[in-house]
Amino acid sequence: MTAMVSLKNVVKTYTRGKQTVEVLHHLDLQVAEGDFVALMGPSGSGKTTVLNLIGGIDHPTSGELVVAGERIDQLKGGALARWRSNNVGFVFQFYNLMPMLSAERNVELPLLLTSLGKSERMKRVRVALTIVGLDDRAKHKPSELSGGQAQRVAIARALVSDPKLLVCDEPTGDLDRTTADDILHLLQVLNRDYGKTIVMVTHDQKAADFATHTLHLDKGRFVEERQRTEA
């Protein structure tokens, strides 16, 4: 299968005062197109750093990073921002919605960076909200939504540009178990029925069980891989 994400010999270091800390140690990773991968590991293991590299938010110190067919370790500035806008949708633990905007206006935000006209933008917004089951809440502000509904709006915002890849950082970490399972079922639908490749960081084994593969990081190295077996 075609690789959506490929890390080869990736090193990531941070400088803290006079000390250099190596967070990722010569990491290799392949995520196939259409896969749903969960990244797990203790605090400080490097899993969020991996997610930030894959999403083009951060750069590796060394190594090769190919995502959606592009050497993003070689992209900078506007070129990287355009690549990110076209290829990646982000879902965060705390939704990151603009409180003064309605659900539909929050979902529209990524499209404001494109050349699409107003009518086309709103058509895409309606499709995204319908996919996540919130077309009837389009005019509601975040304060008028439950936590699960707010996360669905955030997922619709991630989907509205029709990206190839969704990167999810603890997407159910602020939700109760039942609501979390609803969100995870939605991610499964996006993966299975809409062909989205998903890489999700989670500390929750029950959340990881929804993925097709689980990778465990410890001190910047992969130490274990599990594949879901269907009952």
From TrEMBL:
UniProt keywords, alphabetically: Antibiotic resistance, ATP-binding, Cell inner membrane, Cell membrane, Membrane, Nucleotide-binding, Transmembrane, Transmembrane helix, Transport
Gene3D superfamilies to which the protein is assigned, alphabetical: P-loop containing nucleotide triphosphate hydrolases (3.40.50.300)
Biological processes per GO annotation: response to antibiotic
SMART domains: AAA
Keyword Repeat: no
Keyword Glycosyltransferase on entry: no
Matches recorded under InterPro entries: AAA+_ATPase (IPR003593), ABC_transporter-like_ATP-bd (IPR003439), ABC_transporter-like_CS (IPR017871), ABC_transpr_LolD-like (IPR015854), MacB-like_ATP-bd (IPR017911), P-loop_NTPase (IPR027417)
CDD domains: ABC_MJ0796_LolCDE_FtsE
The protein's name: ABC transporter ATP-binding protein
